[in-house]
Design brief:
Two copies of one chain form a homodimer. By secondary structure, chain A is mainly α. Chain A is 79% helix and 0% strand. Chain A binds chain B through residues 25-29, 105, 108-109, 111-117, 121, 124-125, 128-129, 132, 152-154, 156-157, 159-165, 167-168, 170-172, 175-176, 180, 183-184, 187-188, and chain B through 25-29, 105, 108-109, 111-117, 121, 124-125, 128-129, 132, 152-154, 156-157, 159-165, 167-168, 170-172, 175-176, 180, 183-184, 187-188. Chain A binds a DNA duplex through α3.
Chain lengths: 200, 200
DNA sequence: CCGTTTCCGTAACGGTTGTTACCGTAGCAG
DNA sequence: CTGCTACGGTAACAACCGTTACGGAAACGG
């Protein structure tokens, strides 16, 4: 049984290449040949690692979710209390990493693709709801006496603010610089942290 | 000099068709043939009305901006004071019209396209900055004693929240229903309206 | 060292894209 | 009514897309 390959490594390589191509040339530039060229191989290997282009897209989408989840886990684990964790998780999503602009661009690309593809839309909803659940848990830990309604509204508002900042900054980074995003997030969180410090 | 045509009517017809196709099938489904079929003509007329596909795209983008600007003008004109105008303008952008979901989808589509197309990116920035200026003017009228920094941060936060709600609702309307969006916007505006009523 | 078997680069396929050339035709000038 | 001209429908073009078939090469078992 000769010449076995590392399937997982190939899929990761190709998913990363998909990622990069999507960040650079956007959704219309995402072709199998472009991905193959970026990965340093030919379309033959791509079609052997993934049965179809859609499977490659879905795997790359899963990779995006996995990265954000890992980063969010790390941000949460490195924080002492719930308020700090909330700030870290949301701040991490807004601008912290150095080459983070790419991730926003990729996210927007997948979002636009999800509007016309049910499978991608399903992944998007799952990922976003997972993120919402995380933020909801942290907000609830910060403000245990709030009503469920207020918790839900605050959580979804915070997430919407973060995603809005991401999207707008991806398209117009000059108008939405990193420090302004941080300040906007801090102001949005002040209602929660002030509430916590008033109780404490 | 026989058989003259109404160029403006043709361009509007084709822009509307572009709009509809973009809302239904998303960015990848936006082809000249699909636009022509939707407009009830052939690609021949499309290519006579617009020299290239990109010109058609840019014109459709301008149409999107024009619609939102007209609606924002109307919302602002129908309001008595600045606070009401601010709530109306932002509320109009978030969910008021009946078939408003299409507009969000189209907006996301153009945004994703703008990430890889400089001309579209330029239009996006111009439109967004125009909207920012409008909101900034209204916020400044509500809170004349705020510092420029606070005005800017609040304005951009409000716009980011609205766009974030739009984007997330477009992809997951079940999680972001219309009433939740309105409540989120109301809560975000409370800091301004409360400030105004405290002064008054 | 060799045979076998899996892997993957090559190249072609059908289909669709944006774009172009062409010509029938519709409508006004005279 | 007739002729001319701009309009726009038809169809073909090259380029590119995702996908497929095939053959050479590479690596393990014996």
């Amino acid at each position: 049984m000769p010449k076995q390959r590392d399937v997982q490594a190939q899929r990761d390589l190709l998913s990363n290449a998909t990622w990069q191509v999507l960040a650079e040339t956007g959704l219309p530039g995402l072709t199998l040949r472009a991905v193959a060229e970026r990965a340093g191989c030919t379309t033959g290997l791509v079609m052997h690692a993934f049965p179809t282009k859609k499977a490659l897209l879905l795997h790359a989408r899963d990779l995006l979710y996995e990265r954000t989840a890992v980063r969010a886990d790390a941000a949460e684990a490195a924080s002492a209390d719930a308020a700090g964790a909330l700030a870290a998780v949301l701040g991490q999503a807004v601008d912290l990493p150095h080459g983070h602009h790419d991730e926003s661009r990729v996210w927007v690309g997948f979002l636009a693709a999800a509007l016309a593809d049910d499978d991608l839309a399903e992944r998007h909803r799952a990922a976003n709801r997972s993120f919402l659940a995380r933020v909801h848990r942290l907000v609830a830990a910060c403000c245990p006496m709030w009503t469920d309604e207020r918790l839900e509204r605050t959580t979804k508002s915070l997430v919407a603010l973060v995603e809005g900042l991401n999207v707008l900054a991806a398209a117009d980074p000059e108008t939405y610089p990193a420090d302004l995003q941080r300040e906007a997030l801090r102001a949005a969180l002040s209602v929660i942290t002030e509430w916590g410090s008033a109780v404490r």
